[in-house]
Amino acid sequence: MENTSHDFITELRSIRKHFQGRPTPVYYAKTLSEKYGGRIYLKREDLNHTGAHKLNHCMGEALLAKYLGKKKLIAETGAGQHGVALATAAAYFGLECEIHMGEVDIVKEHPNVVRMKILGAKVIPVTFGLKTLKEAVDSAFGAYLEDPINSIYCIGSVVGPHPFPMMVRDFQRVVGIEAKEQYFEMTGENPDNVVACVGGGSNAMGIFSSFIQDEDCELYGVEPSGKSLNLGDHAATMTKGSPGMIHGFKCYLLQDEKGEPAPVYSIASGLDYPGVGPEHSMLKDLGRVNYVTANDKETLDSFFELSRLEGIIPALESAHAVAFACKLAQEKPRQSILVNLSGRGDKDVDFVVENYGKDYGIKF
Ligand SMILES: *Cc1c(COP(=O)(O)O)cnc(C)c1O
Predict the structure, then answer these.
(1) How far is CA 219 from CA 122, 209, 232, in A?
(2) To 5 degrees, how large is the angle CA 274–CA 331–CA 283?
(3) Is the peptide bond before 161 cis (omega within 30 degrees of 0)?
(4) Residues of the chain with pLDDT > 70: what percent?
(5) Quick one: average pLDDT of 164-182?
(6) Does the C-beta of 199 come closer than 6 Å to ligand 1?
(7) Cα 199 to averaged position of ligand 1 atoms, centre (Å)
(8) pTM for the full model?
(9) Mind telling me the catalytic residues?
(10) In terms of C-beta density within 10 A (0-12 exposed, 13-18 middle, 19 or more buried), how is residue 104 classed?
(11) Domains of the chain: which residue ranges?
(12) How far apart (Å, rounded) are the C-alpha atoms in residues 263 and 130?
């Protein structure tokens, strides 16, 4: 057993360095900091291979599949980032890959669908319910249960029944370990605040896990308040939800009167999930993490601002974290803020410009 663990970790480390391009840098966002006060730093997960933090857990899950002798990786995807990351991992290891995706997201995230197909994955359209992430999870679970011997279910966040939340958190932990070391090397200190967006919560758990023990470090999880805080207009699970069950685990949940998961909305497909990781739910109850929100407008403003002030086009998911960090910088002008920039915005540029370009001076 001991050698197996050692070999596993050695192989994972080598993959991270030579294939994924880790460590990703920590960057001081000077212009943004000058505008808002405070000192804003970005952990650049947008520079991770495939453009987001998700490859961190996908390479781990696929390596696990190899060790277990599995032939096929099965998963759901929302924005398509998890699907692309897992299809990438499958190609790397020479495994089959089947990705379940809501029809609504297939249209919205077309470039990622193309990427998955180029990488050799099979994309299964999910046509029931709201045809987004929640239904895609149901569909993927179903497919996995049809052949649990030869296939493995690779969940996309720190959600689902044990051991999925723990596994995904531990594979994402590399983000926090690197960021803490890099930030200390740059400043000689620990950051005063750490900010991350929360969909299911994997990028947030990854970076938070290194700072939870540091009591003077404030942690902020940013959820999408979307168009408004009326049910159906947002995915602010912690802010507006109550304890409930989804996909085989208990967490804060946006639910209707019958306890069924409620419809959710976010401008960022990767954040529109009615549940949230069980560990986040615990951290909320403990009062260790502050769960806050950013709405569509604030997110779009930050999307363009980070692009124009720093030359970094963020994913719409990550732009939620940046939007909140700018507010926090104004409230705490003497403090430092480390933001997990979970992904890059290439996948979002067409959607943003088509729907909101005019508001930001873009005309064709
Ligand atoms: C999927 C995704 C998220 C949300 O997922 P978490 O599990 O909450 O991290 C955030 N940012 C990006 C770029 C994503 O692709």
Answers:
(1) 38, 10, 27
(2) 35
(3) no
(4) 99
(5) 98
(6) yes
(7) 6
(8) 0.96
(9) 54, 76, 342
(10) buried
(11) 21-52+173-360, 54-164
(12) 7
pLDDT value of position 272: 87
Whole-angstrom Cα distance, residue 151 to residue 98?
Answer: 10
Taking alpha carbons only, the member of 189, 171, 191 closest to residue 42 is: 191
d(CA 302, CA 313): 10
- Given the CA of residue 158, which atom of ligand 1 is nearest to it? 7
Q: At 278, is the secondary structure helix, strand, or coil?
A: helix
Instruction: Specify the CATH number for 21-52+173-360; select among 2.40.50.140, 3.40.50.1100, 3.40.50.720, 3.40.50.10960.
Output: 3.40.50.1100
Ligand 1 atom closest to 271 (CA): 4
| CA-nearest residue, atom 3 of ligand 1 | 270
pLDDT at 2: 59
The neighbouring-strand residues paired with 196 are 221
- Multiple choice CATH, 54-164, 3.30.470.30, 3.40.50.150, 3.40.50.1100, 3.40.640.10: 3.40.50.1100
Strand partners, 193: 218, 337
Taking only the tens place, the pLDDT of each residue in 83-134 is 999 999 999 999 999 999 999 989 888 889 999 999 999 999 999 998 988 8
Asked if the domains at 21-52+173-360 and 54-164 fall in one CATH topology, the answer is yes
229 contacts 236 by C-beta, under 8 angstroms: yes
CA–CA separation, 316 vs 285, rounded Å?
28
Q: Cβ of 37: how many Cβ atoms within 10 Å?
A: 16
For ligand 1, the distance from its centroid to the CA atom of residue 228, given in whole angstroms, is 21
pLDDT at 1 over 70: no
